[in-house]
Design goal:
Order of helices and strands: HHHEHEHEHEHEEEEEHEEHHEEHHHEH
Shape: globular
Strand content: 5-15%
Structural class: alpha/beta
Strand order of the largest sheet: 1-9-8-5-4-2-3
Helix content: 25-40%
Distance between the termini: 18 Å
Largest sheet: 7 strands, mixed
Number of strands: 14
Radius of gyration: 21 Å
């Protein structure tokens, strides 16, 4: 029986041959490990890749988001106690970043088929916040699973109300979309006022440890974020802000510089595999994600880079059969994951404030979601095994 791992990190690392080892050795030999040439080089390259002016390397994706929010507080665009619209169905880091900055997460339900925020869901949350006495000053849109939110429409809504529009792009490295009715194509990181990226090892662009970045066209924000992440300092022992330690180290920057040139190619391969799944998985108990919308530019970049391929499993009586599907696939050697089994408002960190309200779309998605293996190095045999495994599922009644 073939074994299909969810994301074989060792295979990914080995696919670069000696390049990653050589990059790490280069840093060790240089004797410079924090905020040196490797970090500066990657920041320049990643900003250019995203189509933005500035990139500031930080410690991880959570800190990227919290530093953006703290930066805008220092710049006077936000004040402690302001509300930030967040999705109800995201990894908890999105909410934690808002809370860490002294702001109030205000949940918006996603559109159930796309699993991301829409203009209507943001409009509804904005109205509900006003009725609740919460002053919304920002929208933190999460490109969940690698699918872009409709940022051009959200941008118009935000500008009309003088709101910041921010991206949690932790799962959307390289995703791009046509901007409105124009022929312009923009990538994640260049769709709002600022974006936070994670380079956790399993991401489409992953380091060999924790790492992150803030990407923006706002020079004043980039300057403040760089200071905040360096103990509030630009000059040694001179501290302008009550900052923190959040810096992209030289080895991780060097690793990311090696991997960045392959990102578009790897995202295209992810789309090829996703299209196989969408075309060949046929099981009435398994709801597939929406197809990616292809931008008709020269490189055919897509609005979904398939960091995660989520399926949702439900019996005819409305009961989730996700766990039965997971057991069925595991018995066939196919590893799956769940993103995410408990929505943020039910986590102990937030349940006292948000749990009583309930967010039924997020709760239903959390009960039904299962992530199938999908990565650029999957073999044709592995892809076929996943398709056959899902198609053979009978709702837990297959013995």
């Amino acid at each position: 029986m073939i074994q299909v791992p969810y994301y074989p990190l060792k295979r990914v690392v080995e696919s670069y041959g000696q390049e990653l080892q050589q990059a790490a050795t280069r840093v060790v030999d240089s004797g410079w490990f924090i905020r040196g040439e490797e970090c500066a080089s990657f920041e320049t390259a990643f900003a250019e890749f995203c189509g933005a002016k500035y990139c500031v390397g930080v410690g991880n994706g959570l800190e990227a988001l919290s530093l953006i929010l703290k930066g805008y507080i220092e710049l006077g665009r936000l004040e402690p106690g302001d509300g930030v619209i967040v999705p109800s169905n995201t990894f908890i880091a999105t909410w934690l970043a808002v809370k860490a900055a002294g702001l109030i997460p205000f949940p918006a339900e996603p559109e159930e088929k796309s699993c991301v925020l829409t203009l209507k869901s943001v409009e509804d949350a904005f109205t509900n916040a006003r009725l609740s006495g919460v002053c919304i000053k920002a929208i933190l849109a999460v490109h969940l699973y690698g699918r872009l939110c409709p940022m051009d429409r959200l941008k118009g809504f935000a500008e009309d109300r003088n709101l910041l529009l921010l991206e949690d792009a932790a799962q959307a490295h390289g995703a791009a979309m046509k901007w409105g009715d124009s022929d312009e194509v923009r990538r994640a990181g260049n769709l709002g006022d600022a974006a936070g990226f994670s380079f956790y090892p399993g991401k489409n662009l992953g380091a060999l440890g924790d790492a992150g970045a803030v990407v923006t066209n706002d020079e004043s924000l980039a300057v403040v974020v760089r200071k905040l992440g360096n103990y509030g300092s630009e000059k040694k022992y001179v501290h302008e802000f009550a900052g923190e330690n959040s810096r992209l180290d030289e080895i991780q920057a060097a690793v990311l510089s090696v991997k960045l040139p392959r990102l578009d190619e790897e995202n295209r391969r992810r789309n090829e595999i996703a299209n196989r799944y969408l075309a060949e998985i046929k099981n009435p108990l398994v709801r597939l994600p929406l197809p990616a919308e292809i931008s008709q530019d020269a490189e055919e970049r897509a609005s979904n880079v398939w960091h995660i391929f989520p399926v949702h499993c439900e019996l005819p009586n409305g009961e989730s059969c996700r766990d039965a599907l997971r057991d069925h696939l595991s018995a066939q050697g196919i590893e799956t994951l769940i993103h995410y089994p408990t929505p943020p408002h039910f986590q102990k960190a937030f349940v006292d404030v948000y749990g009583a309200t309930g967010y039924p779309v997020a709760e239903r998605l959390a009960a039904e979601e299962l992530s199938l293996p999908l990565h650029p190095l999957m073999t044709e045999e592995e892809i076929a095994a996943v398709i056959a495994g899902v198609n053979g599922f009978k709702g837990g009644l297959d013995g």
